[in-house]
Write a structure and sequence with these properties.
The chain is built from 15 helices and 36 strands. The chain is α/β, with parallel strands linked by helices and 676 residues long. The strands form 8 sheets. Strands 16-15-17-18-25-24-23-20-21 form a 9-stranded mixed beta sheet, covered by helices on one side. A 6-stranded mixed beta sheet has the order 4-3-2-5-6-35. The chain has a 5-stranded mixed beta sheet with strand order 8-14-13-10-11, with no helix packed on it. A hairpin with a 3-residue loop joins strand 3 and strand 4. The longest helix is centred in the first third of the chain and has 24 residues, at 3-26.
Length: 676
């Protein structure tokens, strides 16, 4: 207790004594023993009240022992079972749990990981992906301020993510890899990688590239085949040796039938092979019978033109042709017309667009002739000011015409447009609002119009090339912008009437990929409806098995994750509860488990991780040595720590009860003696 607090208590006692003596001794007419008793009661009650106000406290130190943490981290991927190490790993975990000396020395925490780190130890060894780097980085964050060595029980085979050899170089804790799996090299042929585009065009040929490898010392001969159904459509004889242990095979296949075409690549196993799963890879190609042809009409040269061409043609299913207004002869050859900064030279273009009821996309900028544009169409009007302004984009999260997400428009540079009020007279939906510096407005920067089955998009600003460049600066690629602009092109190029329920899925998925299906549900006014209850029914065409699961609301769509489905062909139907609305589709899942492509434990990488972190690598038959090394390592000592607590000297509840009790006795005694 501090000296200042003691002084306050003494002062409180003196004040309480003075008050008691003044009231019952000094002012009393007759000084009797009762006065002394009343003075004593008053002293106690006043002193207790003052103590309640002072609330004296003292500091109490408690001491405890903190053991170092040992993080047991177990690989839960299917490669452990494939390498026949699942029982050995489970036995090692049980041994650690029952080892008294190890548990007395360490505070043991258990984790499992596959594609993500989990703070539980439910080992099934059936996960399809492994990301060791992510697991180590998360453990580094969890124990960045403590002494916590990590026992990493894994085969070292990572299917995706950063190379953990390099990420472990900055890891603060020591890592002790326990290497599971066979470390002896055996004879094996393997399809290391298969490169093929997802899409091809009808009556064309699409390229396929296969990288084939061989592990062994003898010269061998085998055969590489591509099968479609029961037919072999490509074959090549290959020879491997210890020196010539890899081949790159490149060829083309014909796309003769529209739709999803499934193929099987087979590298015929040699007699000595143990792992034959990595000799087969299934792949598919969606053959499209039409390519979207887009015409961009511009009378000026501008950086936007190159950016638009690059963005549109990033999707192989689209091509863009750029012409001047005087060069256009036939617009029916194109699914979409982009009109860039129209002037009076575009008069004939607008007349032909109206004649054939063609969808088009108008981009407006500082060179646009608004006198002409206001007269040639009546869907929107711009106030004529002859001034320009730079407009910042602001994403409209309530845009409901089709599904889009904000790709970070608030960080994008402004577009240059004509200053003045814009009025849209047709049914429209604003995708981007335009802001002037920090002033938010409700005027459109990018909007879509759908009227009488005809669609139009209008961008009220030039300089979209800066947006694509900004996307590259932010992400080191153009994917987000190209995907955003591609969806806008897809919408305007399509003549499909708008539906209240739309589904979004791929035609096929690989077995090791995330399988997600999304749906958009709108009100009768075509506004996105967050109140909907959507279910999806999935039917396996091959086995007849079916299931129905709810779809979850996520941003501006409903989504379901079907990554647990096995390979096969599936039909699905999305329905809205309480509404007579449904949409159906189908997809295929190709059989592929990347974990089964692995043959040996990666001793080299795990050894490098141990070296990087001042740890040590062990094999499964060295469990006792590893446990003894951890117990006897002087770096991991228990630490005695103290904790200082500030404790109140008197509980205020009891003190308040004492005050009430004392005042109550004093009042009754005074009442009894006729002093009240």
């Amino acid at each position: 207790m501090q000296t200042q607090t003691i002084g306050l208590i003494i002062a409180a006692g003196i004040i309480a004594l003075i008050i008691a003596l003044f009231q019952y001794i000094y002012k009393a007419k007759n000084r009797t023993k009762k006065n002394l008793f009343f003075a004593f009661l008053r002293f106690l009650s006043v002193f207790a009240l003052l103590l309640l106000l002072i609330n004296p406290s003292f500091r109490k130190n408690t001491y405890f022992i903190e053991k170092p943490v040992l993080a047991i981290t177990v690989d839960n991927s299917s490669s452990i079972k494939h390498l026949k190490q699942d029982q050995s790993v489970s036995q090692l975990v049980d041994q650690i749990k029952q080892h008294k000396d190890l548990n007395n020395r360490f505070d043991i925490k258990y984790y499992s990981f596959s594609d993500k780190l989990k703070d539980s130890l439910s080992l099934t060894f059936d996960q399809k992906q492994t990301n060791i780097s992510d697991a180590l980085e998360n453990l580094d964050q969890i124990y960045k301020n403590t002494n916590a060595p990590v026992m990493l029980i894994t085969d070292g085979n990572q299917t995706y993510g950063r190379d953990y050899r390099f990420s472990s170089a900055n890891f603060k804790q020591q890592i002790y890899p326990v290497i599971t799996g066979d470390t002896t090299e055996v004879t094996d042929t393997k399809i290391q990688q298969l490169n093929v585009n997802r899409y091809a065009y009808l009556k064309n040929k699409f390229p396929v590239e296969a990288i084939l490898t061989y592990t062994g010392s003898d010269a061998v001969t085998t055969r590489f085949e591509i099968q479609s159904g029961s037919n072999t459509i490509y074959t090549e004889v290959l020879s491997f040796s210890e020196e010539n242990n890899s081949k790159v095979v490149t060829f083309t296949l014909p796309a003769n039938t529209a739709g999803v075409q499934k193929y099987k690549a087979v590298l015929v196993p040699i007699n000595e092979e143990k792992n034959k799963a990595n000799n087969i890879k299934n792949f598919a190609v969606e053959v499209i019978d039409q390519k979207t042809n887009i015409l961009l009409i511009s009378d000026i040269i501008h950086p936007d033109l190159g950016a638009l061409k690059k963005s549109i043609e990033s999707n192989e299913r689209r091509s863009l042709t750029i012409m001047k207004p005087s060069e256009v002869s036939e617009i029916n050859d194109y699914q979409l017309i982009i009109v860039y900064q129209p002037t009076t030279r575009f008069r004939n273009i607008y007349e032909r667009l109206d004649d054939v009821k063609k969808n088009y996309f108008t981009i407006i900028g500082s060179k646009t002739d608004w006198f002409f544009l206001n007269k040639v169409q009546n869907k929107y009007k711009q106030e004529i000011t002859r001034q320009t302004e730079y407009y910042l984009p602001r994403f409209n999260p309530n845009y409901g015409t089709f599904l889009l997400v904000d790709i970070g428009f608030n960080e994008y540079p402004p577009l240059k447009g004509t200053f003045g009020e814009i009025k849209i007279n047709a049914s429209h939906d604003i995708l981007l609002y335009r802001d002037i510096e920090t002033i938010e407005t409700d005027e459109p920067l990018l909007a879509t119009i759908e009227e009488n089955g005809r669609r139009e998009a209008i961008l009220f600003g030039e300089g979209i090339w800066r947006w694509r460049a900004q996307n590259y600066l932010d992400n080191k690629n153009f994917e987000d912008f190209d995907d955003f602009f591609g969806k806008l092109i897809q919408y305007t190029a399509s003549n499909k009437r708008k539906s209240r329920l739309n589904t979004i899925s791929e035609s096929f998925y690989y077995g090791n990929a995330s399988i997600k299906i999304r749906a958009e549900y709108f009100t009768k006014n075509y506004e996105f409806d967050r109140r909907g209850s959507l279910n999806i029914s999935i039917n396996n065409v091959d086995t007849g098995a079916s299931q129905t699961v709810p779809m979850l609301l996520k941003n501006n769509s409903y989504e379901v994750d079907l990554s647990n489905l096995t390979s096969g062909n599936y039909d699905y139907t999305v329905t809205v509860v309480g509404e007579n609305i449904s949409r159906s589709g189908n997809f295929s899942i190709l059989d592929y488990d990347v974990e089964q492509q692995l043959l040996n434990a990666d001793v080299t990488k795990l050894g490098q991780v141990a070296t990087n972190t001042n740890g040590k690598a062990y094999f499964m038959d060295q469990n006792d040595a590893m446990i003894n090394d951890l117990i006897n390592d002087d770096r991991y000592q228990s630490i005695q720590k103290s904790k200082e607590n500030v404790v109140s000297l008197i509980d205020w509840k009891y003190l308040l009860a004492i005050i009430i009790f004392l005042l109550g006795i004093e009042w009754f005694m005074r009442k009894y003696n006729g002093l009240i």
